[in-house]
Amino acid sequence: MSILTLENINFSYGKTKVLKDISYEFENGKMYCIVGKSGAGKTTLLSLLSGLAKPHSGKILYKGEDIKNTDKYKYRSKYIGVIFQSFNLITKYTALENVMLSMDIAGVKGINKKKKAMELLLSVGLDEDEANRRVLKLSGGQMQRVAIARALSYDPEIILADEPTGNLDTETQNEIMEIFNSLAEQGKCVILVSHSPDVAKMCDECYELKRNSKK
Q: Rounded distance, CA 130 to CA 114, Å?
């Protein structure tokens, strides 16, 4: 059964139609890639999936329920983990503090947050020294790992990532994709937006968005 379903989604900016009659299904345990040229609506689709934007028509179903009837704060802080293209980390904080703050925002209770945050950072390839560095002192690949750990901090079932390897060298890209693959193997639904053919090849399924030239 699909954990996330799009049914005839339409979205426009003013008179410009960006998404037209989009119907996709996403399952747990798989890694998906949404591809398409610039302007095809990839990032817009990710915003819709994360509840940051609303479709003008059509439905987005989470476990069979229309998310328009769902508490959006709860949806984004418990069920969906979002990894932004620009990371959106708090640069004056350490990597560890960024992950712990995400737990606080999500209302995670009953655990040692510092210990859990460190475990997550170690699991994505950072060492203890790097975990205690301010974000500004980290490389792009290290910041991407922090962003992944932060998205995992409240154990969401769905991971959304916007161009997660866009600014990384090939070796680091492959390491990040191994992390996403591991998450899918653990039963999470991983949805990536990417321009990279290499990233697309590493995913279980790809959906291609085509630029809509009609208004």
A: 15
